[in-house]
Write a structure and sequence with these properties.
Pfam families: Oxidored_FMN (PF00724). Residues 1-27 are annotated as: Disordered. Residues 46-390 form the NADH:flavin oxidoreductase/NADH oxidase N-terminal domain. Its EC number is 5.3.4.1. With 411 residues, the protein is an alpha/beta fold. The two termini are 40 Å apart. The protein has twelve helices and twelve strands. Helices cover 30% and strands 13% of the residues. It has one domain (42-378): Aldolase class I (TIM Barrel, Alpha-Beta Barrel), CATH 3.20.20.70. The chain has an eight-stranded parallel β-barrel with strand order 3-4-5-8-9-10-11-12, surrounded by six helices. Strands 1-2 form a two-stranded antiparallel sheet.
């Protein structure tokens, strides 16, 4: 009998076959029992069915959203990030997106955000990717530029002061905040400088360079952050983009920055690897970016080789009026899915229950769900959803003794 461990004892890694989060067929005894009673096993809920995107197959459709942890210095990942992302892979997440990672130092949201603007960042991220792969999880990273919402204090300091602005003494970059137009998000943020064409091209190249580094780190998926009021979203929305050149004004001009960036990233990203884009499908402000714009953009993104569209909302204007309720943003993924069937859609937004998540996928409202805060509350969300839905699922080998017993149901 061969050893289940890797050859190098310093790695001490036990192979997981199948990987955690993978559905396990009912035992022969359960099948025999079901057929003896004239019943058939329940079909596997769609949320636990695999999803193929280009050359990659997500083992289930419960994915971890990128969530800023504000735990880096000079952009470098740490042991915290390794432990943080690994916990979700160990417990069966199908795909994990590493948090918004700045393509330039001034592209970070805060001085404590991750970065990918220099080669020295690669090794730390490679370590995380390697660990996610050991558990059969697709490893993705969201690359981003903060635009006018940059140089702010980390989330942990919110509420401790009157302004969110991070000074140069705190590691901020108050003199290097820029955006499509010289309009601040609000009084808590710095007033940005309007970008020159040269700066636009520099940022686009920074996304390309970060993509090349992400490939060297071994990531399977790149997601471009075009949501939540950060730079690429700022170009899309007429509320934040008041330019009069080829990057402002009409829909075609306002989408030019995103389309050009996507095109350049796709050109250097391996063709067998999926490319994601995250958008805010609406600004929730009259006269702002809206769901019809998102559908029109999705049609353009498909032509540029984008495979998956994550549909979030808001973050670009403090006048936003958000109708918060469970699953309130799912409607936007559904609208894109119905109008642009060539692209996979991901639903987000107050998805907290296993049955709720399953219903979204089962009813074809989206192709996958990307969950954020509920994974922080319950890193075992995939495992608990399997128990809730009565699905026999593989647990991590080392945790098998704690597995919740599932009696396979029959209909």
């Amino acid at each position: 009998m061969s050893s289940p461990f890797v050859s190098d004892p310093h790695q001490f890694y036990q192979t997981q076959d199948p990987s955690p989060g993978t559905p396990v067929e009912p035992t022969s005894a359960e099948i025999e029992q079901g057929f003896a009673s004239g019943k058939n096993p329940n079909p596997l809920p769609k949320i636990f069915q695999p999803l193929k995107i280009r050359n990659y197959v997500a083992k289930n459709r419960m994915w971890v959203s990128p969530m800023c942890m504000y735990s880096a210095q000079d952009g470098f990942s740490t042991d915290f990030h390794l432990a943080h992302y690994s916990q979700f892979a160990i417990r069966g997440a199908g795909l994990i997106l590493v948090e918004a990672t700045g393509v330039l130092p001034e592209g970070r949201i805060s001085p404590n955000c991750l970065g990918l603007w220099k080669d020295e960042h690669i090794d730390g991220l490679k370590r995380i990717v390697s660990h996610l792969h050991k558990y059969g999880t697709i490893a993705g990273i969201q690359i981003a530029h903060s635009g006018r919402k940059g140089s702010t204090i980390p989330l942990q300091l919110y509420g401790t002061r009157d302004s969110l602005r991070a000074s140069s003494e705190e590691g901020g970059w108050p003199d290097n905040v820029y955006a499509p137009s010289a309009l601040p998000y609000n009084n808590d943020h710095y007033t940005p400088k309007e970008m020159t064409i040269d700066q636009i091209k520099k940022v686009q190249q920074a996304f390309v360079n970060a993509t090349v580094r992400a490939e060297k780190a071994g990531f399977d998926v790149i997601e471009l952050h075009c949501a939540h009021g950060y730079l690429l979203h700022e170009f899309l929305s007429p509320l934040s983009n008041k330019r009069t050149d080829e990057y402002g004004g009409s829909f075609e001009n306002r989408t030019r920055m995103v389309i050009e960036t996507v095109r350049k990233v796709r050109a250097v990203w391996l063709q067998e690897k999926p490319l994601f884009v995250r958008v805010s499908a609406t600004d929730w402000v009259d006269g702002g970016w809206n769901s019809d714009d998102t559908v029109a953009l999705a049609k353009l993104l498909v032509k540029e080789g984008v495979d998956v569209l994550g549909c979030s909302t808001a973050g670009n204007d403090p006048r936003q009026k958000i109708p918060l309720s469970p699953g309130y943003q799912v409607q936007f993924a559904t609208k894109v899915k119905e109008n642009v069937p060539e692209i996979c859609t991901v639903a987000v937004g107050i998805i907290t229950e296993g049955q709720q998540a399953s219903d979204i996928i089962q009813n074809d409202k989206a192709d996958a769900v990307s969950i954020a805060r509920q994974f922080l509350r319950n890193p075992s969300f995939v495992l608990s959803t399997a128990h809730e839905l009565n699905v026999n699922i593989k647990w991590n080998n080392q945790y098998e003794r704690g597995k919740l017993k599932t009696k396979y149901s029959f209909v």
